[in-house]
């Protein structure tokens, strides 16, 4: 697998957010967990994981997939049988999890889609909205076997609109706008009720919409989740995840972010981790 030298993109976004007084609504680096199963479902936990046959674990990055430095990442494995309740990984609305919400903003994270387990059936459905269900889905798209694909709010698989590399770290930045007006940001514009999606700094999805959403336009996005649809066939797949952040401000970072920003952001990450997980 290709390697990323550091958590530069994630730290740069946090640094910019701090400077602009943006609201970081959710962040996850997987550093605070013991190795193995990630705590979920409790009042002080960030996540709920629903998958009888799957796993959601913290892994020591000994092979330097995401960073050359000491690092941990999350491994999410769905292994759902046909007709079972859909597998789901969703943020929790707690003071330790997803705090607040915003009708415009940005979701960023790094991921590796491993070819060792090719996604049968539809793929991983990424959803943003007011809750982790079809009725709460404002915006959604599929991550599937090297392609990004359209979806409606029910999770029907649409055509491919972009591609990404398997077995490689990919940086994804999702600029979302769930208002009734176009939104200008960083020299670009995203249409009403749409997303602009960047892979490794390149715009690959322009004004991506989600058909049939019943979420009221203008509602605040307060939930981020990944699921798979197993209504007609089984699903198995694995994603490695790191450096997840949901922010009310939009800041697509430049590849050549300065060392000064890195230092500032590193301090901010430590501060956030201690503040949000202090008992």
Explain how this protein is built.
The protein is mostly beta strands and 279 residues long. It has a single domain, classed as Exo-inulinase, domain 1 (Jelly Rolls), CATH 2.60.120.560. The protein is built from two helices and 18 strands. Strands 1, 2, 4, 5, 7, 12, 15, 16 and 18 form a nine-stranded antiparallel beta sheet that branches. A seven-stranded antiparallel beta sheet has the order 3-6-17-8-9-10-11, with no helix packed on it. It has a two-stranded antiparallel ribbon with strand order 13-14. Strand 9 (137-144) and strand 10 (147-151) form a beta hairpin. Helix 1 packs across helix 2 (259-277). The radius of gyration is 17 Å and the shape is globular.
Please describe the structure with a list of short key phrases separated by commas or semicolons.
single chain, 279 residues, mainly beta, Jelly Rolls, 7-stranded antiparallel β-sheet, 2 helices, disordered C terminus
Structural class: mainly beta
| Number of separate structural domains | 1
Gap between N and C termini, in Å? Answer: 37 Å
Report the CATH superfamily. Answer: Exo-inulinase, domain 1
Q: The biggest beta sheet, please?
A: 9 strands, antiparallel
pLDDT < 50 runs, ≥5 residues: 1-9, 16-21, 256-279
What is the annotated CATH architecture?
Answer: Sandwich
Give the radius of gyration: 17 Å
The CATH class assignment is: Mainly Beta
| Mean pLDDT level | 85
